[in-house]
Design goal:
Order of helices and strands: EEHEHEEHEEHHEHEHHHH
Bound molecules: ligand T3D
Shape: globular
Helix content: 40-55%
Number of strands: 9
Oligomer: single chain
Strand order of the largest sheet: 1-2-3-4-6-9
Length: about 260
């Protein structure tokens, strides 16, 4: 696909989407949003794809919204900062959060502002040792967006989330891991290879089961225990009836690696 603000490639069941405006630290523009939507559509509809990696080109993951991009105006003719969120960021975050395949945010470098929160909407966040995350909004007198005020308190607790958002400090990868925001940190030299290896693992895994696991965990945020237990039973029924579950048990008995088809 001929994109200008991202690069997307698919190999071995993994679609890798790289934000690709390195001279602007991959800051988000309307064009980048539109291209990202198209790349996610393609990855979702391609049955051969079972994992999507979102990363950045050059030295950053992304510096958030491009602060040089023209402001959207409200009906009163004044800049309307909420309009871009409603048009671009909010649908993107909901889309990533509910994406039916495994999503990995690979923080090759700084993840700042809205892009930090887009990364947190992914299932797994991996970081290069030199990466950092910054809820930079308050530095420019803005409120955290792209779901940060929703996801951060749920991951790190309200107090820590407030500290991250009020100070707008740059938090190094190792501390992000200690806080549970990042799953694993890898040295920069091996980061790309480690990300690719984990993505391939998911691409060879039971895709339908992954989707059901995601559904269960996402629903747990609002369900009470009884409702969640019933959901687990319903989802287990579906997983147990899948070709992959039959293969998984058979492979275990035959002492060989399973060959999953994602259904
Ligand atoms: O519609 C709306 O605006 C509301 C939505 C808001 C959502 C948000 O994401 S708000 C948060 C926006 N992002 C920021 O506030 C971060 C701004 N950038 C920085 O603070 C710093 O660039 C970094 C801390 C990320 C990195 O610093 P450093 O020293 O490593 O790099 P640098 O020299 O500042 O940046 C390199 C270039 O990228 C530079 O351009 P130049 O001077 O070489 O021509 C810089 O201007 C450009 N750049 C960095 N971030 C952005 C950007 N250009 C446009 N937009 C950016 N966000």
């Amino acid at each position: 696909m001929a994109f200008t603000a991202i690069r997307a490639s698919t190999a071995e069941g993994v679609t890798t989407i790289a934000l690709a405006r390195p001279e602007r630290l991959n800051a988000f523009t309307s064009v980048m949003h539109a291209e990202l939507r198209e790349a996610l559509d393609a990855a979702e509809s391609d049955d051969a794809v079972r994992c999507v990696v979102l990363t950045g080109e050059g030295r950053a993951f992304s510096a958030g919204q491009d602060l040089g991009e023209e402001r959207m105006l409200g009906t009163d003719g004044k800049p309307d900062y909420g309009a871009r969120l409603e048009r671009d960021y909010n649908p993107l975050v909901e889309r990533v959060y509910a994406f039916p395949k495994v999503t990995i945010a690979a923080l090759n470098g700084p993840a700042v502002g809205a892009s930090a929160n887009i990364a947190l909407a992914c299932d797994i966040v991996l970081a290069a040792r030199s990466a950092y995350l910054q809820e930079a909004f308050a530095k420019i007198a803005l409120v955290p967006d792209a779901g940060g005020t929703w996801s951060l308190p749920r991951i790190v607790g309200a107090k820590r989330a407030l500290a991250l958002m009020l100070t707008a400090d740059q938090i190094p990868a190792v501390e992000l891991q200690q806080m549970g925001l990042v799953y694993k940190v890898f040295d920069d030299a091996v980061f790309a290879n480690e990300v690719a290896a984990m993505a391939r693992r998911f691409a060879g895994g039971p895709g339908m089961t992954y989707r059901l696991i995601k559904e269960a965990v996402r629903a747990s945020g609002t369900n009470d225990l009884k409702t969640q237990l019933q959901l687990e039973a319903n989802l287990q029924r579906k997983a147990g009836a899948s070709e992959d579950a039959t293969e998984g048990v058979m492979a275990f008995r035959e002492k060989r690696p399973p060959r999953y088809k994602g259904r």
